[in-house]
Write a structure and sequence with these properties.
By secondary structure, the chain is of the alpha/beta class. The protein has helices at about 10-25, 40-45, 55-65, 80-85, 85-105, 140-160, 185-200, 215-230, 250-260, 270-275, 285-290, 300-315; strands spanning about 5, 30-35, 50, 70-75, 110-115, 115-120, 165, 170, 170-175, 200-205, 210-215, 240, 245-250, 265. The strands form four sheets. Strands 3-2-1-4-5-7 form a six-stranded parallel β-sheet, with helices on both faces. The model has no long low-confidence stretch (mean pLDDT about 95).
Length: about 325
């Protein structure tokens, strides 16, 4: 049975991935870690937990050795909008933190390593419709810069040291479990929260803004399926394009209104609009579908039904 370490286990992806991996590998075999001060009860009570900062290589190695870790999911990251407010910290956590984790994993004999890239790796010069797997990578944010550099670093460690690193370029991720965390696509999560709590939402991008999105259950399943795939099947060692659905902010608001009577949405674009406009509208993920049989399950309607039902329970709303 694999011994798994999840670095950044309380973020948007980690909150769901930790639970899924504990079901898959056994609770005692999956170590959740964070540099924050508190774990959610579901994670804290569900298995081993450790506190350390990804910027501290010695602390990272200590935990890997303590549990005999042979599989790592390195999710620690400062997201796009937050990263623009503090680009130095974004560089430290996103890129130097990744290198620390890779070095620790290599020195501790880790067999398989996952790191998430993002559509932020693309930029205004990238083709925006059905963005290809191999294309121009000229991002306009520090978050995007760290993702491009991180992809190349992962490929380097695979070629140089044989460390089996796998990665996907996530689109905007939508989840009811973790609240918005400072990303440019977080309007697609916040709209559901505000619709249920207040019956209205003020969107920080314009109504015609179209971005690729994915519901978290698809993202988690796709991540695990990539990690389970035979190494010889994988042809991409930077990061795989991963896609599900694309829709405009207005299409999302209209869908929410179909489920929540009286819901209204207004639009007041802010600095995040410029970031959104530099990203693709749709993604060509045919390589992932060919190499490891990736296939999404949720469309906008199916996602909204599940999202709203779970959020109503979480928020104590009927």
């Amino acid at each position: 049975m694999a011994k798994v370490l999840i670095i950044g286990a309380v973020g948007q992806i980690g909150s769901d991935l930790t639970v899924a991996l504990r079901k898959k590998h056994g609770a005692d075999n999956v170590v959740a870690s964070t540099r924050k001060t508190e774990f959610p009860l579901e994670i804290k009570d569900g298995g081993p937990c450790e506190y350390f900062d990804v910027q501290d290589k010695d602390a990272t190695m200590k935990v890997m050795k303590k549990y005999g870790i042979d599989m790592v999911y390195q999710l620690a990251s400062l997201l796009s909008a937050t990263g623009e407010k503090n680009p130095d910290l974004a560089f430290q956590i996103n890129l130097l933190g990744l290198k620390n984790s890779l070095d620790a994993a290599r020195e501790c004999g880790v067999k398989r390593f996952f790191w998430p890239s993002s559509i932020a790796a693309f930029g205004p010069t990238t083709p925006r419709e059905r963005t290809p797997q191999r294309t121009v990578l000229e991002p306009s944010t520090m978050y995007g810069v760290t993702k491009v550099a991180g992809e190349l670093l992962c490929q380097y460690y695979f070629n140089k040291y044989g460390l089996d690193i796998r990665s996907v370029r996530y689109p905007g991720l939508i989840s009811w479990k973790a609240e918005p965390g400072g990303g440019t696509t977080d309007y697609s999560v916040a709209i559901y929260y505000d619709a249920i709590k207040h019956g209205s939402y003020k969107c920080f991008v314009g109504p015609q803004t179209v971005l690729p999105m994915m519901y978290m259950p698809d993202a988690i399943r796709g991540t695990v399926e990539l990690m389970d795939a035979p190494s010889e099947k994988l042809t991409v060692r930077t990061s795989y394009n991963l896609a599900a659905i694309s829709f405009s902010a207005k299409e999302l608001a209209d869908e929410v209104a179909r489920h929540i009577a009286g819901f209204t949405c207004t639009y007041e674009p802010d600095s995040r609009q410029k970031i959104a406009d530099s990203w693709p509208k749709s993604i060509d993920d045919s390589q992932a579908r060919k190499d490891w049989n990736w296939k999404h399950e949720y469309d906008l309607s199916k996602m909204s039904v599940d999202m709203i039902a779970n959020l109503k329970v979480k928020l104590g709303k009927k």
